[in-house]
Write a structure and sequence with these properties.
Blueprint: E1 5-8, H1 11-21, E2 27-29, H2 37-49, E3 52-54, H3 60-72, E4 77-78, H4 101-109, H5 118-121, H6 129-134, H7 143-154, H8 161-170, H9 175-183
Parallel strand pairs: 1-2, 1-3, 3-4
Helix pairs in contact: 1-4
């Protein structure tokens, strides 16, 4: 069972997580961008007491909410669901609520520490944008497609080059692991 508090954007996302992870998971929803100072303080306390996992939609608003929480709540960890696995049947809307239970379980199985917090900044990040460029994952005509495929295999979602570097570092993906995935 997951002991941490899980943050999502809305009620439908919470229902999807409970279907996938069990009714006992503790889910907090932000109601979109409406994070109040009271909610931030609550999340800070929850992070200290039991831990917080952030699982927002794989779109720009979801990333903005994730970034706001990460900035305000030290020690949160991130769960990523890819855009390709979180589309409605018509493929016109994206959200955690549309991801299958299996996809959600796989995403939670891969959760790792986020390196942007002070306790993790002591070690140097493993990856940089230059590394991605050298590997053809940035600045190459097929870079976005390559990142999307690797993001699927690493269960870390779709991302632009900057976010891809951040997620590689957050999940502490080793050079060996990434090189094997690229060549395989």
């Amino acid at each position: 069972m997951i002991e941490e508090l899980i943050v999502v954007e809305g009620k439908n996302d919470a229902h999807a997580l409970r279907r996938a992870l069990g009714e006992d998971v503790d889910v907090f929803w932000t109601h979109g961008f409406g994070l109040t100072m009271e909610q931030i303080l609550f999340l800070r306390r929850a992070a200290q007491e039991r831990g917080v996992l952030v699982c927002t939609d794989p779109d720009r608003p979801g990333q903005m909410i994730r970034d706001k929480i990460a900035q305000e709540v030290p020690g949160v960890r991130h769960v990523y669901v890819s855009k390709a696995t979180a589309l409605n049947e018509a493929r016109t809307r994206v959200g955690v609520e549309y991801a299958s239970p299996e996809t959600i379980r796989e995403a939670f199985a891969r959760v790792g520490p986020d390196l942007q917090y002070p306790e993790h900044q002591k070690s140097d990040p493993l990856w940089s944008l230059r590394d991605l460029t050298d590997l053809g994952l940035n600045g190459h005509p097929q870079a976005a497609i390559r990142r999307r495929e690797l993001g699927k295999r690493l269960h870390m979602g779709d991302a632009n080059a900057k976010q891809f570097v951040h997620r590689l570092n957050a999940l502490r993906v080793s050079r060996e692991e990434l090189l094997v995935l690229i060549s395989g």
